[in-house]
Amino acid sequence: MEISSLEREFSERLLAFLWSQWAQMGMLASSSRKDAWAADPEALLLLTLEVAREDPRLFDEALDWFLVNERWISLQRLRNLSQDEEDRALAGAAIEWLSQWRRRTSTAPKKAKPGTEPEPLFLNAQLSVERPDPAFLAHGFLKPSTEPSRRSASPDFNLPINFAFRMRALLGVGARAEVARVLLTVEAPDMSLQAIAASCGFTKRNVQEAASALRAAGLASSWTLGNEQRFRMPREPWLQLLGIDRLPLHEDWPQLFHAFRVLLRWLRDPRNQELSSYMRASEARTVLEQVIDDLHFAGKPVSAAGPDGEDYWDHFTTVVRQLPLGLRS
Amino acid sequence: MEKIQTKESAEGLLEALGEQLATAAARFEIVVIGGSGLLALDIVERATRDVDIVALRSDSELRSPAPLPEALQVARDRVARDFSLPEDWLNTGPANLLDFGLPEGFAERLESRSFGNYLTVHFASRLDQIHFKLYAAVDQGPGKHSKDLEALAPTHEELLQAARWSRTHDPSPGFDQELRRALAHLGVDDGDL
Q1: pTM of the model as a whole
Q2: By the 8 A CB rule, do A213 and A252 touch?
């Protein structure tokens, strides 16, 4: 299988997945899915900003949703989950775009950083960008300036997928809501601070403060095992409080989506199209090794080990094609 | 385990190394002796576990390969990972031969092959391999080196030439005694030494 075919297939799977997620979260889109998991809004947004570079409509709808639902989003967390320069550029541009439209004023176009040539935001774009969006230009991207439609709606808090928003409505947009979401949904009786921090996308110190506050409020308990402080939250009172039969399922989206972004960027890189069969397999092995810890953290039974030499490519394509996008996919 | 079974597998690994170096835009010329060199030059057909670098060459000058330059190490490690080889599949084990002196005319007799635009491998000639194999066979006793030496089918004169060179590397009486015994085994009168 050629890299371009694998990229197309993976990208299409991700786009369909993203549309289905956002449709359940208030974006103007339709989906028959009712997922039982709790989404991670910032992680989903970050993945969307990358994947939707091949789908301008989804990209603009995601920005529109971001603008309409800004109060439910943690910009700090969006920054925290940005793991590399590409993530930071996309997240930074989206945050600046938000600020630009929040003010409802037209700002003078900023210039791209000196010494850097802006690149088209949308891949495979045929037309030149006549009127670049200043927020994206400031982060090195040429994106056509478009007016937000403001057609996005607020998330329906009763859906399991929107559990994070419900927690934020109760506990505020910040580490407390994330700690509560993780402790209530993860399939483990208790968790170490380190594991909670990795799932939450906040620093261990922030998580410790938040978890301690929940404990002080009588909502969580903790004990020390060796040098490790572990936390748990009793679920029955929460089920009663929220008026639901069961809590949504947990997925470690930040790790999973980071792996998806790294894989997708590698598949999209035109330089990789030129590689020999051996180098393509070798580079594929390197990129899979790069994301294997994230995939394992997210509970995906994937192995980076495979056949020698160029035969590894078949292993890699199988892994990418069979990567579960979520718990039930 | 001997992973380099045939001439083709040796060449395949060097081609992979050349591709890794090309990706890193790092150009090297390596000088190789030992079993992999014998395989490459169709002198013997036996498996080997590694590729022994005796020197690096740049601007026609030979210099010590130890430690391997970082770009070459990275490329070597990638190939090791990709083909389930030990990391020392490409090593500088025989580097001290360069320090003590290579056979006279060694550089002129090298047989060179390019593996892409970024890797040139210079293989020691048959005559020089006779030098190294005789030295190793005497130093380490009967085994793969003495078998390789037999496969090289050296002449009387070539063995004497190799013996004189090997004595410059180990002038000890013990080595001299073993050397004479080995030459006698190979049918050479050590009176000419």
Answers
A1: 0.90
A2: no
